[in-house]
Amino acid sequence: MLPIIFSVGPIHLYSYGLMFAIGVLAAIFYLSKQQPVAGLKQNQIIDLILFLTFVGILGGRVFYVLQHFDYYQKNPMEVFAVWQGGLVIYGGLIGAVVGLAIFCLIRRVNFFELTDLYFPAVSLAMAFGRIGCFLNGCCYGTPTHLPWAVKFPFLKEVVHPTQIYFSIFDFILFVFLAYRYPRRSFVGEITIAYLVLYGQNRFMGEYYRGDNIPVIWGMTQAQITSLAFVVVAGVLYLILFRKKDIVSTSNENRQNLPR
Prior knowledge:
This protein is mainly alpha-helical. It has helices at residues 15-32, 42-67, 69-74, 89-107, 111-136, 162-180, 189-205, 221-255; strands at 4-8, 11-14. The protein has a domain at 4-182.
């Protein structure tokens, strides 16, 4: 655990903020290597990722503050101390998706073209962000006696390094989605894959989290949101895959018309 990497007088370099920044830069680098989509140039895509990072942080922080409202009600100035940690991943995703939807409405571009491009970058940024969680000591796991268990100074027992579990998965998910992106069979495939794979992993990973408590039916808020992600992915698959088949059939019929 290393929440502060170094300090110079009153100035502190927080490990969570540093790893989050590295994640955003890595995501920008990845996006800079992609071909322009939906009529956007590469510099516009980078501007978009910076905007989505902002609204994502805002959404993630709002969800976190609401979850710990009693504390922040007594310490209102700490609401803005994002660099110290305290973001809800699902809140960040929802905030970013809402921001992206607004952007697409204004620019009149295909929403799923951009989400297909965006979600591999999200996975990459989150992989680094989870390392920041580990260094910060948040999002810790349940007690275990496995050889790789870790000890945080504020806990009595050694616990699962759930932050590292999530980080490894996010790196693997990034590689898979980045590989599939230029090979996707229909627009929206990468979005659906992300929602399903991340949702399933987060649902199972919650059983090893020691900082989240069940809210209903023995499930945490993150597990409920994970199930919602998988359901949304299923609905999107039925809609977008069917749309792909309709478009393909229409194109084939045009080709078979007498000339």
